[in-house]
What we know:
The relative contact order is 0.11. The strands form four sheets. Strands 1-2-3-12-13-14-15-16 form an eight-stranded parallel β-barrel, surrounded by six helices. The chain folds into three domains: 18-82 and 179-348, Phosphoenolpyruvate-binding domains (TIM Barrel, Alpha-Beta Barrel), CATH 3.20.20.60; 94-170, Beta Barrel (M1 Pyruvate Kinase, Domain 3); 360-478, Pyruvate Kinase, Chain: A, domain 1, CATH 3.40.1380. By secondary structure, the chain is of the alpha/beta class. It is elongated. α10 (299-311) crosses α12. The longest helix is centred in the first third of the chain and has 18 residues, at 53-70. It is built from 17 helices and 21 strands.
Amino acid sequence: MKGRPSKERPVIRERRARIVATLGPASRAPAQVIALARAGADVFRVNFSHGGHPDHARTIAAVRAAEAEVGRPLAVLADLQGPKLRLGEFADGRVRLKAGQDFRLDRDPTPGDASRVCVPHAEIFAALKPGADILLDDGKVRLKVGRCGPDFAETIVVGGEALSDHKGLNLPRLTIPIPALTAKDRADLDFALSQGVDWVALSFVQRAADMAELRQIVQGRAGVLAKIEKPAALDALDEILDLCEAVMVARGDLGVELNPEDVPVVQKALVRAARLRGIPVIVATQMLESMISSPTPTRAEASDVAGAVYEGADAVMLSAETAAGDYPLEAVTIMDRILTRVEHDPRWPELMRAEFPVDDEDADALVAAARRAAEAASTACLVAFTTTGQTALRLSRERPLQPTLALTTRLAAARRLALAWGVEPRVVPPVFDPEDMARMAVEQAVDCELCPPGQRVLILAGLPMGSPGAANILRIAHAPLRR
């Protein structure tokens, strides 16, 4: 993508919050990906829990083709599966349990029955202790541990009845001594990086060492994102976020292991923590869940999406709604409408900023000055010249209400910025002179229809031009009046 590789005029979105759409059987055909991008999807998630590498290669190629078609950078997010902890098999495929009965978990591979079943993960038994809770099948069956050892656990059924082969297993509030990167994840990660993905998401992060290992392997070839879906991660949140370039509030497994009333509180805390650091934060899972089979969402789902926008989240994510649902295009379209409507609420800026009051002491002095200057009525937009994307991210952290046009010579940086709140990334030729910089900033702002004639553009850049480093120039330029 050089300058504008598009077949149509790029559309500047009327909203700052971004949309992540998961691709799958219902949506990964090239024409469908183009339609989702035109409807408002900014980042496309490829879920490595399903499908093989040939499928993923075709999906990523479809995103790159859509990018050229719509004329704006689109990001690919590779979501690694992580360690999936599951039960073994039952002799009859399924069993019925009763509350209060004994139920044994052990390492014996013999098919199970209503009294016991195999758990083929030694790490589970290493983490268990008397009194611990065990959740099976997304919490539909709950067990309480009595006696346990290195290869068994004797439990009492607290609730739930039906249980079948290979259902998932969760241990709330326990740190499981298992690596976040499995052998499958490592192979998937190598493949994803070879395909040039823009973001890599690590599932079931429990400790900072998990993210440190991912960063060491990735070596800057993609942005690294932590999915917070284990309560154990909350105990090491600061250390984990210090090693992240983005974070996801993954409410699926998190909602299984936490009490329902705790999930909204944790979501708000995670969004605030990410905003404080200036790293993008995605709110995910069950946002428009009913649209898997319905052409419209429930009112509660619309309110849930709106709540994330009022909190100032960078992005909201669609999972099965677009990957396997009956209405993927409608889901993105309605998500776009909800985000846009919230951002037209006159009270939205006040409520969004109340979630994270702007504090000049925590901002770069130049970025804080740019935000204050942007509040003038004559300012149409901000333009950040950036090599790595960091200058644009620092501006995004401050949540200016004017759009931020991020100009970079690096396509990889532009694609990663597709996830950032309020940032419109564009790839441009290099400039080395401040006057050429000002001219290009105005031309790009006018070309993208972000700056009407006579309005001013605030330009943030660093000297020498083209070198990574902190911005050290704040300049004002004006779009010429039409003759």
